[in-house]
Design a protein that fits this description.
By secondary structure, the protein is α/β, with parallel strands linked by helices. The chain has a single domain, classed as Glutaredoxin (3-Layer(aba) Sandwich). It is built from 4 helices and 5 strands, in the order E-H-E-H-E-H-E-E-H. The protein has helices at 13-17, 32-47, 63-68, 95-103, and strands at 6-7, 21-27, 53-58, 76-81, 84-90. Strands 1-3-2-4-5 form a 5-stranded mixed beta sheet. Helix 2 (32-47) links the parallel strand 2 and strand 3.
Length: 106
């Protein structure tokens, strides 16, 4: 399966999230639940390719972004529409629930 996710960083945040619907997965390599969420997010990215942008933000490398969104536990998933936060929740989310939630904003 091709990698359809993008890396969201402090440097590219505005360019990558300013338009359309964007799901950001805030994660870290040492986080067990994040390793469970990762493959689910990859499937969501493949299913919504061309409709929504799906990105991952490593909280260890981009702590400024994690702080800006008030991320206190990971994984945290944030949905933006045209650069504005419309949804945020922590914990592991199933594929169908994520696709349904993102679809609300398409």
């Amino acid at each position: 399966m091709p990698n359809t996710e993008i890396d969201i960083t402090v440097e590219n945040f505005d360019d990558r999230t300013g338009q359309g619907v964007v799901l950001i997965d805030f994660w870290a390599s040492w986080c067990g639940p994040c390793r469970m969420q990762g493959p689910i997010v990859e499937k969501v990215a493949a299913r919504l390719e061309g409709k929504a942008t799906v990105g991952k933000c490593n909280v260890d490398e981009n702590s400024q972004l994690a702080s800006a969104f008030g991320v206190q536990s990971i994984p945290t998933l944030v949905i933006l529409k045209d650069g504005q936060k419309v949804y945020q929740a922590a914990g592991v989310h199933p594929e169908e629930a994520l696709v349904a939630k993102i679809s609300e904003y398409l």
